[in-house]
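The step that takes the researchers longest sounds almost clerical: writing a folded protein down as plain text. Below is the pair of lines this work produces for a single protein:

——
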Amino acid sequence: MNPFLGVFFHWLGGLASGSFYVPYKGVRKWSWEVYWLVGGFFSWIIAPWLMASILSNDLVGVLRQQQWGTLWWTYFFGAMWGLGGLTFGLTMRYLGMSLGMGVALGYCAAFGTLVPPIAKSLNSSIPVESSLGDIVGSTAGLVTLAGVFVCLVGILIAAMAGLTKEREMPEAQKKQSIAEFNFRKGILVATFSGIMSACFAFALTAGNPIGEASKAAGTSTLWTGLPKLVVVLLGGFTTNFIWCVFLNIKNGTGYQYFVSKIKPEHLNLTAPVGEGASAPAKATRPDTDQNAPMLRNYLLSALAGTTWYLQFFFYTMGETQMGKYGFASWTLHMASIIIFSTMWGWIFHEWKGSSKKAHGLIAAGIATLIVSTIVIGFGTWLKSAMGEGH
């Protein structure tokens, strides 16, 4: 176990998650449901099976030996997480990338981190290593919990920055960077999205027996989390696939997978990543070119989808290094995503025109999140150094 290496892996995962949408910005002519589903095949099907097949032993055999209950709950919570992912884009639509991720992932951090050990306290058969009592009963555990608290404080500060931005910026200025900025709508959607997205942490917990079986099959500890991702992400694929196909039928956009010529009624349509429907772009000069760059779109969507998968590729690696306090992995993951998504928000000028107070708050929020990752890393290292039970 190497907690600082675990923190590093979680940061790499956060970088991947905070950056995956950037290639989608280069997709041209396609409706949202088309490029989201194309990227999703790489995120949820191709990359998980490919990486688990290469880096773990006897993937199919490990999955076959699992009890149906293990497979079902891992898949089910993955599907519930998929619902949160579908509404996640609406959060970014109303709040922007930096604030939207900050608020939604704040709920993810709180629920995904604290619920598993609490559930373990209520039901000892749940496959979680430590109960809340175990964590509170040790110095290292208290330090790690303090890091979780610091993380939530950082997320609150980031949310305050967004509220300040809404109150201070002129309406026209807000619309330049975020076309449909609406703090109240965004907070409501972020609440639902964040809570549902926390189901990913529950899915990973339910899939722990898969990781144990993979280790027993001779897989290196570092890669034992990859087989359970195959099941979790299949659940996420199910909900996203159903919704995207529904939109293909509703909007008549299914032809875009196969032909480059876009129908006139589908030109000048855009949608933020994760949103469920296309919306008219507010462009000053309408686009009359009906030819979509098919190869470019497929390659960029594949790149975005694969980058998205890498967040959990590195997450499972980091989790294997956190030992008894692996419950903090989820907080580290959420914090690192917020940090890197805010970085991209600055690059794309989402905070341009906001006051010094708003800039100071968002900077303080990000700094607090960075401190939280250090505190959590120190807590897991302290656990190892003090020789507390594993």
